[in-house]
Amino acid sequence: MKKTPDFDAAADFLAGARVLDRRVFERLFSGGPAEPVRDAVAAYRNADGGFGHALEPDLRTAASQPAAVEMALGIMDLADAWDERLVRDAIDWLAAIAPAEGGATFVLPTLSQGPHAPWWVAPEGNPASLIQTGQIAGLLYEHHFAHSWLDGATRFMWSAIDKLTEPENGYVMFGVLAFLEHVPDRARAEAAFDRVGPLLLSGGLVTLDPEAAGETQSPLDFAPLPDSIARRLFDQRTIEAHLDHLAAAQRDDGGWMFNWPAWSPAAEADWRGFLTVDALRVLRGNGRA
């Protein structure tokens, strides 16, 4: 019998999570309205149009960060709560601080204004990042959102993907795949995927054993839904094994836990709420709920 999640236990767990994740849960699984999700996202907005205030749980600074913009857009997309004004203001901010080559940098030096995970380090020279640029650009293309920032981001992404031979980590591929999934030039995107998609396997970036310990990334991280562009890289038996593992990973308290280092109690609590909603989304999207 296929493993399924306990939604009642998850709801009880999320009662102690941040308001944002509770609102997304209500929206996705209880028919809740979009407005409370938008309001909850907007609470993390800064006067410059960007987002901060620990929306990205590992960046606790109030200052706007590209990663927080990506998370804000991703949550609004996930919950069908897309707000054109919030999005435009955020992308206007990204355009104002964009690297010379276009796109968005990995993280800004303002991360030092608040607590942050030790793996967040601002790169010298403010270079564009495949991770942040690809994920944000993919969301904008998904919503047919035109902006001059997107033009420069697209040029950067195509140039970087054309040169990509050995991704330094799986996070790079999150940006690459998000971009290739939604960029309008489908012929070029498919050709690019045929070349770079298999790097997930050949580069050892994805862990096929669902029981593998440590900070690993599974096929469901790169291809969470049946129509994900990278799903074709994995056979159904592998996907089902990882779905079983994901469903079984629900803890006695009703929530899910991440597999990277927990450096802060506040960040741990925020991530667990976010990932609990995401685990339920993936399981439902694959017929497990």
Can you offer a commentary on this structure?
The chain is globular, with a radius of gyration of 18 Å. The longest helix has 21 residues, at 265-285. It has helices at residues 7-14, 19-29, 35-42, 66-78, 84-96, 130-142, 148-163, 170-182, 186-196, 199-202, 219-222, 236-248, 265-285. The model has no long low-confidence stretch (mean pLDDT 97). The protein is 51% helix and 0% strand. The chain is mainly alpha-helical and 289 residues long. The two termini are 13 Å apart.
SSE blueprint and pairings:
Elements: H1 7-14, H2 19-29, H3 35-42, H4 66-78, H5 84-96, H6 130-142, H7 148-163, H8 170-182, H9 186-196, H10 199-202, H11 219-222, H12 236-248, H13 265-285
Helix pairs in contact: 1-13, 2-3, 2-13, 4-6, 6-7, 6-8, 8-9
Structural class: mainly alpha
| Number of beta strands | 0
Specify the biggest β-sheet: none
Mean pLDDT reading: 97
What is the H/E order?
HHHHHHHHHHHHH
Beta-strand content: under 5%
Low-confidence stretches: none
Number of helices: 13
Helix content: 40-55%
Rg over C-alpha atoms, rounded to the nearest angstrom: 18 Å
Distance between the first and last residues' Cα: 13 Å
Shape: globular
